[in-house]
Amino acid sequence: MGKSLKPLMTQALPPGEYREKLVDLFFVKFQSRLDMQQLLDLAIPIYDKYLSHEEVRGLIEFYQTPLGQKTLKVLPTMLTELQEAGRKWGENLGRDSMREVLAEHPDLAKALEGAAKTAQPH
After folding, report:
1. Domain, as residue range, for 80
2. How far is CA 96 from each of CA 89, 90, 92, 105, 113, rounded to the nearest angstrom?
3. Residue 86 falls within a domain, yes or no?
4. Is residue 99 part of a domain?
5. Distance from C-alpha of 102 to C-alpha of 95, rounded to nearest angstrom
6. 0.90 exceeded by the pTM?
7. How far apart are CA 113 and CA 88, in angstroms?
8. For residues 58 and 55, what is the distance between their CA atoms, to the nearest angstrom?
9. Residue 58 in domain
10. What pLDDT, on the 0 to 100 scale, is given for residue 47?
11. pLDDT value at position 2?
């Protein structure tokens, strides 16, 4: 978890010499408070809600195979990359959609421009 979250957390903080030490200390504190039983107590009812006992046993068998082991290894990194790719895709889609709407409706573009000017501090 630290491998995938550490870069994201570091990027989320303003640059500075403090940043690496803060992130490292955060993960030390986080891991010291981590109680796996609490996580299991949260996870079991959710697994129960969506998967049968047989399906869970099938997953256990799968994760014991070489492909299952590889999946466990690469899935956190894959999910991080997918999340970032989806964020960028959504950002671009939103920006392009707004540009098209403003190009199709010049009155709204003018209103937005006027609102932006009045919102700026003088």
Report:
1. 66-122
2. 11, 10, 6, 14, 17
3. yes
4. yes
5. 11
6. no
7. 25
8. 5
9. no
10. 95
11. 65
